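Quick one, tokens below:
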């Protein structure tokens, strides 16, 4: 389902682009919000080597898939209205299979591919995009390093049984008690398990059948250490009888 991420004043967004053939290669582009999804796919066809008519484009925030850009007539701004998101291109041709007995396999050597002027690699080189922009790559690496250091510092503060307040964009601030600090099966990075004071969570301390801690249903949640502030946060009391 398509969704608007958040409002913004700029007519453009900056987004990273990755593709299903090489998830490790991503580069930043500036795109107009009034681009239709069909026009966007045509641009991504040049950048990724996919086919605009068959490609699938997914919108990510970090490692979380927010939506699939499946309406070719919709404008990009309807799906993505802020910077820092990632457009992931899935080339449907990668799913096709051919009979090797009837179709001759076409291959290029590394040197032959380097000499081609109409390749994706040559386009990236000429426009100094992605890994061919040394300054951009250095800045991205420094940003990742700083984020990793901040993540480690914040995680070290999240002691089990400590009181905390959780602030996740798009959600109200919630208070609770830290019940878990560590990795989750099938996920990368460190997560903080919180037992909330109110039923504002998503689980009971379990994910995919595995229990990391125990609490009442909808009182548990797992968030990034960057979303957690540890401190003296007493439980808030709400007396509904006094309301008019």
């Amino acid at each position: 389902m398509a969704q608007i991420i958040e409002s913004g004043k700029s007519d453009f967004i900056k987004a990273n682009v990755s593709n299903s053939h090489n998830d490790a290669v991503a580069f930043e582009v500036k795109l107009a919000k009034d681009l239709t999804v069909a026009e966007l796919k045509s641009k991504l066809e040049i950048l990724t080597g996919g086919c605009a008519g068959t490609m699938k484009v997914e919108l990510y925030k970090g490692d979380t898939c927010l939506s699939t850009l499946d309406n070719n007539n919709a404008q990009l701004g309807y799906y993505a209205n802020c910077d820092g998101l990632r457009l992931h291109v899935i080339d449907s041709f990668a799913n096709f299979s051919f009979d090797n007995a009837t179709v001759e396999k076409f291959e290029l050597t590394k040197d032959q591919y380097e000499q081609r002027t109409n390749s994706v690699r040559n386009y990236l080189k000429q426009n100094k995009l992605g890994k061919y922009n040394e300054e951009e790559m250095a800045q991205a690496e420094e940003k990742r390093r700083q984020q990793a250091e901040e993540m480690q510092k914040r995680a070290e503060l999240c002691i089990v049984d400590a009181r905390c307040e959780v602030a996740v964009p798009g959600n109200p601030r919630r208070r609770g008690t830290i019940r878990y600090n560590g990795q989750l099966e099938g996920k990368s990075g460190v997560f903080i398990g919180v037992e909330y004071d109110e039923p504002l969570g998503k689980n009971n301390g379990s994910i995919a059948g595995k229990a990391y801690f125990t609490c009442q249903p909808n009182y548990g949640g797992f968030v990034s250490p960057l979303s957690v502030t540890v401190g003296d946060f007493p439980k808030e009391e709400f007396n509904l009888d006094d309301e008019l």
